[in-house]
């Protein structure tokens, strides 16, 4: 016999179910094409449950974007941690970000609807928490190790983050993603290589 779930566990499960259901529908149809009733019905819950946990469709979408960005950050960190040196960790993390962002089940949520629905500033805050902070830390390590020239880290972080987000957005419209992802990663490698001090 299964033990009874606590109210907190039930709350967490309902919240997770709504996020997962909303994520699937937002990815398939886009934010504006999905209604609250459709999300609630797909999750086999009431609209009241959705309002209780998220307040609105926009509130649910915010949680979905946050979840997607955290998922990407975990994949980036795992790829970086598997590399042997700080430079290789940096390159592997940047490559992983592009690969993870280009995944079809993330593109519309993270790159297309995210900035327009949440607003640019809120979307950037989430991006900062999930990915840009790791990029800043990696760049500081490389500067400390004299792998790249010492310089103000904030503008460099923004330039690299902006370039990678723009490349990921371009990939979202690709008709041959395998080819274009390979081309983007090759261009990224050249861009990152230009930062490196001569050995």
UniProtKB/TrEMBL annotation:
* Membrane-traversing stretches: none
Q: Where is the HTH tetR-type domain?
A: 12-72
On whether Endoplasmic reticulum is a keyword of this UniProt record, the answer is: no
Residues in the DNA-binding region annotation: 35-54
Against InterPro entries, the record matches this protein to: Homeodomain-like_sf (IPR009057), HTH-type_TetR-like_transc_reg (IPR050109), HTH_TetR (IPR001647), Rv0078-like_C (IPR049484)
Name the Pfam families on file.
TetR_C_41, TetR_N
Q: Which GO MF terms does the UniProt record name? A: DNA-binding transcription factor activity; transcription cis-regulatory region binding
Keyword list (alphabetical) reads: DNA-binding, Transcription, Transcription regulation
Which PANTHER family would you find in this protein's record?
Answer: HTH-TYPE TRANSCRIPTIONAL REGULATOR BETI, HTH-TYPE TRANSCRIPTIONAL REGULATOR RUTR
Protein known as: Transcriptional regulator, TetR family
Which species does this protein come from? Actinoalloteichus hymeniacidonis
């Amino acid at each position: 016999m299964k033990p009874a779930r606590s109210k907190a566990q039930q709350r967490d499960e309902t919240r997770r179910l709504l996020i997962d259901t909303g994520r699937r529908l937002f990815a398939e149809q886009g934010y504006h094409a999905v209604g609250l009733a459709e999300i609630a019905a797909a999750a086999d819950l009431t609209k009241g449950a959705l309002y209780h946990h998220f307040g609105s469709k926009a509130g649910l979408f915010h949680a979905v974007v946050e979840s997607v960005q955290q998922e990407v950050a975990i994949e980036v960190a795992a790829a970086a941690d598997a590399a042997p040196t700080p430079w290789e960790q940096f390159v592997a993390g940047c490559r992983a970000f592009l690969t993870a962002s280009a995944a079809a089940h993330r593109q519309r949520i993270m790159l297309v609807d995210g900035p327009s629905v949440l607003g640019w500033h809120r979307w950037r805050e989430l991006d900062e928490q999930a990915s840009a902070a790791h990029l800043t830390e990696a760049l500081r390590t490389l500067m400390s190790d004299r792998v790249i020239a010492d310089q103000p880290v904030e503008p460099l972080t923004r330039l690299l983050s902006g370039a990678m987000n723009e490349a990921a957005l371009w990939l979202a419209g690709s008709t041959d993603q395998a080819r274009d992802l390979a081309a983007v990663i090759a261009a990224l490698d050249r861009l990152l290589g230009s930062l490196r001090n001569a050995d």
